[in-house]
């Protein structure tokens, strides 16, 4: 499929892109730029042209069941501890980085997650 070919898009996606394009043109955007923005919007919303068979991987029913029970177990542990805030180990590196920034911990930008946890514990 050559670049710019819209054959893989559904009729609904094509109508949506056309509508978005007209909206941009009413706002004074050039025709070529309006078309590019419209298709970019459609791609962002729907992940591009729909292909037969669907896209992405499907989880097995066993994997879904395992995920649900893990989630339930984690929720029960949170309720049991009486604390809604996650422990440091349960937080993402980005969340830990925000806390380290708020506490002005030096060298935080080069720290790994475990190092951030240790530094945050030492600072309290």
UniProtKB/TrEMBL annotation:
Rho termination factor-like N-terminal domain segment(s): 88-121
Compositional bias ranges of the Gly residues kind: 46-56
InterPro entries in alphabetical order: Rho-like_N (IPR011112)
Top-level taxon of the source organism: Bacteria
Signal peptide per UniProt: none
Pfam family, one: Rho_N
Compositional bias of kind Basic and acidic residues: 1-36
Positions of the UniProt region annotated as Disordered: 1-124
Protein name: Rho termination factor N-terminal domain-containing protein
């Amino acid at each position: 499929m050559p670049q710019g070919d819209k054959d893989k898009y559904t009729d609904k996606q094509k109508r949506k892109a056309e509508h978005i394009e007209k909206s941009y043109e009413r706002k004074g955007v050039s025709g070529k730029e309006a078309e590019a923005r419209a298709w970019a919007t459609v791609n962002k919303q729907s992940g591009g042209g729909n292909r037969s068979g669907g896209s992405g991987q499907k989880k097995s029913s066993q994997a879904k069941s395992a995920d649900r029970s893990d989630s339930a177990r984690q929720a029960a542990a949170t309720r049991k501890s009486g604390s809604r805030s996650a422990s440091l180990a349960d937080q993402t590196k980005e969340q830990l980085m925000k806390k380290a920034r708020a506490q002005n911990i030096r060298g935080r930008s080069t720290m790994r997650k475990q190092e951030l946890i240790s530094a945050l514990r030492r600072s309290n």
